[in-house]
Amino acid sequence: MQTQILGYPRIGANRELKKACENYWAGKIELQALLQTSRTITKQNWALQQAAGIDLIPCNDFSFYDQVLDFTLSVGAIPARFNTVALNKKNTELDLYFAMARGFQKDNLDITAMEMTKWFDTNYHYIVPEFVKNQEFKYFSNSIVNEFIAAKKEGFNPKTVLIGPITYLLLGKEKEEGFDRIDLIQNLLPVYFEIIQDLINHGANTIQFDEPFLALDLDEKSKTAYREVYKKIRKEFPQLTIQVATYFDGLKDNTALAINLPIDILHLDLVRDENQLDEILNQFPSQLKLSLGLVDGRNIWKNDFQKSLSTIEKVVNKIGEKRVIISTSCSLLHSPCDLDLETNEKNLPTTIKDWFAFAKQKLEEVAFLKNYFSNPNDEKLIQQYEANQFSINNRKNSQLIHQTQVKERVNAIKDEDYNRANSFEQRKIVQQNVLNLPPFPTTTIGSFPQTQEVRSWRAKYKKGELSAEEYDVLLKQETKRTIEWQEEIGIDVLVHGEYERNDMVEYFGEKIAGFVFSKNGWVQSYGTRCVKPPIIFGDVYRPVPMTVYWSKYAQSITEQKVKGMLTGPVTILQWSFVRDDQPRSTTCKQIALAIRDEVSDLEKAGIKIIQIDEPAIREGLPLRKDEWQNYLKWAVDSFKLASSNVDDSTQIHTHMCYSEFNDIIQNIADLDADVITIECSRSQMELLNAFSDFNYPNDIGPGVYDIHSPRVPSKEEMVDLIEKAAKVIPADQLWVNPDCGLKTRHWEETEKALIEMVAATKELRKIYTPKAI
Ligand code: GLN
Ligand code: ZN
């Protein structure tokens, strides 16, 4: 029996890589210092794994920015717009690489970065390969081999992780018409061969090809490509140990395809789909080794040794110990680094900490499973096993987790609790009477610039350098200024600015019971951006109001309507580490009830408009299509549960940071929010078509100001955008607002852009007289 992991976090336990990269970009450190940081991190990671007892240690899991981009550079798929950067001798390979990742604005050049998108259903983002019709590939960067050589020098003999050829092509985007990227395999495979040969020449004998697409829905063409490609690799390298790693779902209908590939090791994600095992074992070919992804690479819970060991036993009985590898479910890239760094009892109580395992602890779990299986009588191992079972049972039965009242409340939810009392049509009339808004009402999405100053107050307050009263006074001043400024420039529905919030999920997580926060549990989101997701460990409820204080204050200083601002249950769930001892849908409904309580309290406090942000609904969609409806049902229900317990006259808004709604438009309509604001300006309103084709009945605010850029759009541009929108959506359904919150913008451009936005709206009110008014 052997052990392995599929990859290890490369950010460094104290985010050393982030800091080094950012310093390098800022010109504060030299290239050598950056390279030294990377060498230190990789060396530490290998040593850690070896010490823990991992047999197949990965290399090439390191990356300065993103592993897909690394591979793009390795195979020379450099988009033509970067040629000038590539050809300029002054630029190093790493300069070119960072230019592709981040864009290049130097030497009189202005080259846009490559696009970034979510890595399957994780919160990690990769750089999307760009392919053209006759895309050529060449062995361009030898960073893969260099990392292998470095590992060898340090005395390791690692397996090299490569993105599998089919997955690499499927991850990419066709930048012109008239070809299918899968067909590029003819040009790509020879470069794989060169890389593999180079690795073999330097002493490599094992390669892990990551092929997560094998666990997704595949068309026939891709299936055929899988068969042919691995046949060719096998033929070219008969001696090579070829592993294919699948993760993030079960093989399901691709089972026969995957297990019949001419490879040596097949890895399964048994956390995501434990039920796939029996069927696979029944037809498992005799030459193949099976890697069991038992330790969750995407969550922070301790492995249940009893459960894992019984799976191992079942597999060993069927195919024999020698053909079994114990592994994490996927790369540990998605886990925080080291639980040992969490020493703050106040943050993370010892009892709860004892239920967790971060990346370093997961290495030990993998190694333990193998050791204990082989030495069940070893005293020390027995003790570890017992300690593990103690933690598992302690968590199962803990008073901290189980709140009878919360469980009873979820069980008692009735159908009518999901619905508003009356239809949107009826509500719209009542709301118009109460709110008395002009046509094309203007509003913003919630946050206003979080200046350095605002953030420094929070930091000082947390350190105890500002008292609660002092902090409160400063926030109130800032809020007041923002309210007055919105009044002055003529915005119709005001927001308080969200100055009291650090992050739209963390703010609520800190106030809702059932959440804890780590101090150092960073996970890479993209490039040098890391996030520290809240951890939902127990039943969720809201002990006290969370936002009423600020909304009430803001409303008290103006005659105009101030919008209450909440984060929705699906988004809170989606951006946290979620408990694994009950269905996600149950946890989501618990959060929804907490938000429902907040909505009621806001309403009682006189807030007439309440926005519940759900930017993460779409990203929660399961990878397999046949699971979509089940997810959408509970996601939509959760939003409705949170939002429906209000009078007809209370207007519910929601906000989403994207606008690809074609395939979920029915579900978006089912949310029955009175107003939805969406991202729209980049696509020039094209994305509104989903709403018009569907005859979307409720009100819509398509964003007219792209807040992701410091650029100030002109009044004319915005008039143009709204007119485009008014061509497809009846004018009396339209609101005017930016794409998203203004938190990351500076005041300077925000002021200018919003003044232009209001001016654009005034123009429009002259042209259009919506029928309802
Ligand atoms: N209300 C939030 C804000 O304005 C919404 C942020 C988001 O959609 N991601 O910042
Ligand atoms: Zn947004």
TrEMBL record:
Annotated catalysed reactions: 5-methyltetrahydropteroyltri-L-glutamate + L-homocysteine = tetrahydropteroyltri-L-glutamate + L-methionine
UniProt keyword terms in alphabetical order: Amino-acid biosynthesis, Metal-binding, Methionine biosynthesis, Methyltransferase, Repeat, Transferase, Zinc
Binding site for L-homocysteine: I445, G446, S447, E498, D613
Cofactor: Zn(2+)
Domain of life where this protein originates: Bacteria
Binding site for Zn(2+): H655, C657, E679, C740
Record-listed Zn(2+) 1 binding positions: H655, C657, D670, E679, C740
Positions of 5-methyltetrahydropteroyltri-L-glutamate binding: R15, E16, L17, K18, K118, N123, R529, C530, W575, E619
UniProt pathway: Amino-acid biosynthesis; L-methionine biosynthesis via de novo pathway; L-methionine from L-homocysteine (MetE route): step 1/1
Cofactor comment: Binds 2 Zn(2+) ions per subunit. Binds 1 zinc ion per subunit.
Residues bound to L-methionine: I445, G446, S447, E498, D613
EC class name: transferase
EC number: 2.1.1.14
Keyword Transferase found: yes
GO MF terms held by the record: 5-methyltetrahydropteroyltriglutamate-homocysteine S-methyltransferase activity; zinc ion binding
Family designation: Belongs to the vitamin-B12 independent methionine synthase family.
Its biological purpose: Catalyzes the transfer of a methyl group from 5-methyltetrahydrofolate to homocysteine resulting in methionine formation.
Record PANTHER family: 5-METHYLTETRAHYDROPTEROYLTRIGLUTAMATE--HOMOCYSTEINE METHYLTRANSFERASE (PTHR30519)
Stored NCBIfam families: met_syn_B12ind, PRK05222.1
Protein name per Swiss-Prot or TrEMBL: 5-methyltetrahydropteroyltriglutamate--homocysteine methyltransferase
Organism of this sequence: Empedobacter falsenii
